[in-house]
Design brief:
39% of the residues lie in helices and 20% in strands. With 215 residues, it is α/β, with parallel strands linked by helices. It has a single domain, classed as 3-Layer(aba) Sandwich (Rossmann fold), CATH 3.40.50. The longest helix is centred in the C-terminal third of the chain and has 25 residues. It is globular and about 60 Å long.
């Protein structure tokens, strides 16, 4: 049985196109494999707390020395990491905000990329002391952009700090394979936007069927 972790990062509700796109992917997958497990985490509507000095102190305290208050502080992070550990496929629906991640998504990343939980640290490895603990996961990034041309070679490629950032940190989420499908022209509307929505929905369904067949 495959376990899907479905994350949505948009602050919008039903109007959110990234939610519609990620939901379409998951619905298509479940049509193919209805018995697979699904974990849903809405980080847009229920954002994780941002990292604080007290949180960092708790993370770097040996587990057998944690106070009751520190243990309580780390419960959300522990929960997110447990969900991630169970997942074979991470389905992430997220908009691009100001050319990068929504702050809630960044907070989730900061809560799960954690020493001795999702990565180990050993200076004996030289200049590359970090190494992921989890591995073998698939990440499906389903994004929405107000503008256009953020793909490699596109007119706005250099302003895309969403997908490249996710690809930089995904190593520490245990991701070995990633896919990206995006909707563009959201701020423009019109035929180009509608065509982009239709294309992304078609591609998301096709990708879901293809990955489900491999599972």
């Amino acid at each position: 049985m495959t376990t899907i972790l479905h994350l949505d990062a948009s602050v919008r509700g039903e109007r959110s196109l990234s939610r519609q796109l990620s939901g379409h992917f998951v619905d298509t997958w479940r049509e193919e494999r209805p018995r697979d497990a699904l974990i849903q985490r809405d980080i847009g509507r229920n954002p994780p707390a941002h990292v604080s000095e007290t949180w960092i102190a708790a993370v770097f305290t040996p587990e057998d020395q944690l106070t009751a208050a520190q243990k309580k502080l780390l419960i959300p992070s522990d929960t997110y990491i447990a969900e991630l550990a169970k997942a074979d496929v991470i389905v992430l629906g997220t908009p691009m905000y100001n050319y990068g991640m929504p702050s809630a998504l960044k907070a989730w990343v900061d809560n799960v990329v954690r020493v001795d939980k999702t990565f180990s640290f050993d200076l004996g490895r030289g200049d590359f002391p970090l190494e992921p603990i989890m591995t073998g996961k698939i990440l499906v990034m389903l994004t929405t952009h107000g503008e256009f041309g953020f793909e490699p070679g596109g007119i706005s490629e250099r302003r895309n700090h969403l997908v490249p950032h996710l690809r930089t940190v995904m190593h520490y989420l245990g991701v070995a394979e990633d896919h990206h499908i995006g909707i563009e022209y959201q701020e423009f509307g019109g035929e180009r936007h509608e065509a982009s929505i239709a294309k992304a929905m078609t591609e998301a369904a096709a990708l879901a069927k293809r990955l489900a067949a491999r599972a």
